[in-house]
Amino acid sequence: MKNYEIAVIPGDGIGREVVPESIRLLDIVSVLCGFSLSYKYYDYSCEYYKKHGTMMDNDGLKKLRDSDGIFLGAVGYPGVPDHISLWGLLVPIRRTFQQYVNLRPVKLLNGVSSPLKSPKNIDFYIVRENNEGEYSSIGGKFNEGTEDELVVQESIFTKRGVDRVMKYAYELANKRDKKLTSATKSNGIIHTMPYWDERFKAIGKLYPEIKQSQFHIDILAAHFVTKPHEFDVVVASNLFGDILSDLGPAVVGGMGIAPGANLNPEKEFPSMFEPVHGSAPDIAGKGIANPIACAWTAAMMLNHFCEDDGAELIINSIEGLTSEGKFLTKDLGGSSSTREATEGLIKHIKKLA
Ligand code: NAI
Ligand code: MG
To answer: Whose CA is closest to atom 8 on ligand 1?
Structure first.
């Protein structure tokens, strides 16, 4: 029987509440589908940082390297600056393991209400570049503390980095409705974004059957609200993709149901699976976080392992739960706890199996 070794990092806040619930689902699904999962837990988090002064231990990356996948809740907590939790844990994992695709599905589930008045069928993917772009550590402060103080922050776009994420996005569109949209801002950002557009077109030549479109990020954000049903796959740089992948979920029911995967498509290194949401300090400790985002994220991990039957069971149980409208958490208009919502998912999995 195939076994997958998972490095589990529950992290902070609601990460610690939703991850154990997803593990329960994974354990049930693996038995039903004839594979097994073993877990190694790591307490890397802001709490770890407060004790040790770093987000993970020195050979943390080496330890994670041996896993088949990394399953992470969320990190970030009041008292520890957000750039420390991001740059001390998530960014090194994403970059060291060449997880250059951040894949985020946006789908309006049956039974979930959208803030849009009359939403149509919304079902698309955001492919966010995850290793370079605007999120670079190159830059600095000059003349600090004087009236001439200045700060510089560089963006990095490499041919290799842009081309590989474009190829991934074209391939994904090829398997779906054959429509790819690129997010740009080449009118204002006049070096990196025209380059992004140039590579979008160049790689597009290899995929003549795909309908290509590109929009400046400002109007694209508007289209996400006015006609989200028209998108199939959207490819974006690190910053634009980050913004779009909170906006996308907002039109289909919010952060509580938004899944995400940091993929190394070549499977040369482990990929990392984490919901889009953060540690949600405003609701942490109350036991009311929606477990759906993390559960759907677990399904994406199974897809990555080619355990598609298991992934489908979890995704269908999610749609089963939202369609039925019972056992929903507060963010979806219900009053169930994280645990009760998970019990609802388990009931649907057993019914579907
Ligand atoms: P957030 O996603 O944690 O919360 C935004 C809003 O969505 C809050 O009102 C929260 O209650 C709600 N929400 C999020 N997940 C939910 C769930 N599963 N069920 C119900 N409601 C949910 O984003 P925020 O507040 O900007 O960041 C909080 C902390 O998380 C910060 O320290 C930030 O740096 C960190 N963060 C970490 C991420 C990660 O580890 N990948 C991603 C985003 C933020
Ligand atoms: Mg974000």
So the answer is: 280
